[in-house]
Amino acid sequence: MPKGKGPQGKRITLKVAKNSIRVAFNGRRRLDLSKMGIATFPKCILELADVEELDLSRNMLRKIPNIIEKFQNLMWLDLHSNQLDELPAEIGTLKNLTYLNLCNNKLTTKGLPEELTRLRNLRTLNLGLNCLETIPTTLGTLRELIELGLFDNSLTLIPKSVKKLPKLERMNVKRNPLPEFAKEDEPIDTVKRIESLYLVEKKDLCSSCLEMCQGERDELHKLEDMTPGPSDKPDFSSLTTPNSTAMDNQEEWRIK
Questions:
Q1: What is the pLDDT of residue 25?
Q2: Region (Disordered): which ranges (predicted)?
Q3: Is residue 101 a part of any domain in this protein?
Q4: Cα(121)–Cα(16) distance, integer angstroms
């Protein structure tokens, strides 16, 4: 591979693209080019720019060109699991877009164009698994947004304008260095632990009651002094820990 050049990827022809069109249950036509090894946005699909859904996920795309503006009928755009570090300003012209998945890329805060806020019909926006350090406060103008994914970034603050979006129902901010999640509090024991509890004084007890109480106290102290021996510890050496079997599939799960 020549120095400074990325992978060439698979070349998509118009014939291949036409054969990749599917009709969804809702009647929309989806151009599904996911998992095709594409490294460069195929210009031939401009011939199919009237589709309502476009899936370019799980490829090797490093850039989305400004010709994306030709896809004015798009309502659903999936670009997750590529190599994108920025978006073109022209993405803001896709006024019919309701779903935009940008998860698992290399997007930085600078890579999010201000024009993203023009997607006023957007209901689902997934920005998880990227390199975002801040979220533009202008995302608070996406007032139709119902679901927002911000997980696995480097966020330390969620703007109030985003938190107060009127229709927002789900916002995933897991695995960010947010102050409120920086340190998990220890479980609070609501039961007050004390050494002794005196309900009556010894002088007020009869000899038999005093003897009974002292006997129970001695039994309690014996239990406190008991320590289990090595043979009392359960041995689970033959068991497999969940992480040991999940490690191989971890990356695949994160992509999903």
A1: 87
A2: 221-256
A3: yes
A4: 31
